[in-house]
Amino acid sequence: MAHYALVGPTGSRTPRLGRPVGATNPVTEVGGVVLLLPDGEPVSARGPSVRGYAGMLPLGRRLVRAGRGDGLVAHVVRYRGRGWNGADAQLAADASWAVSEAVRRYGDVPVCLAGRGMGGRAALRAGGHTGVAAVLAVAPWLPEDDRAAEPEPVRQLAGRRVLIVHGTNDARTDPELSYRFAERAKKSNRETCRFEVHTDGHALRQYADEVHALAADFVLSALFARTPSRPLADAMAAPPPLGLRMPLAAGFGASFR
∠ at Cα 211 (73, 241), nearest 5°? Predict the structure, then answer.
């Protein structure tokens, strides 16, 4: 696939889509797109993180392998920089730009935003883009409740399928904040669920296989109308708090990996 010189939002840098994940064996007809959003920092003027980009590749490869038969492609979004930077919400703006670029490049195909940490917040914030069908937020960084500020928005997620995954021992991003967010989002959008990965931390290394299997289950069912696994279907259907504190079982996905 050709590499494009891209023009993005105004600034000294421009965002771009990285090369398709698994580009050595590209799909012949694109049926859906996953845009992978790396972690970032609350405030920073530094350029995008190479480590953050590399950290999204294992998930991207897992999704592409699972969805190749449906024409799934994945790109890791290269931000202008690594900072959210307050009201600028720079990472969310870059995520929204990436959706528009994916639609321009691939046509009218469903798009899933999949982010980790600060990228999870960007995915949730940019989920209102008309091209987005699904949002996956892994260990999302979400701000503390502040009575002086507007709460993190949720109404833009109406009509999308939303999955949040968080480790209960995450010392970097508070899992209770993602639960509160999911609780508010569920009121606007029934197609919202959240899984808890017990005893795992921010990087979710202990249960990485299970998290990747759940992500693939979610993305393929959301973008291609595949039948979801029973745990995912149950989590979507269950009222709070059950569907928002669904435990991710050890060995999840072993039967369909």
Answer: 115
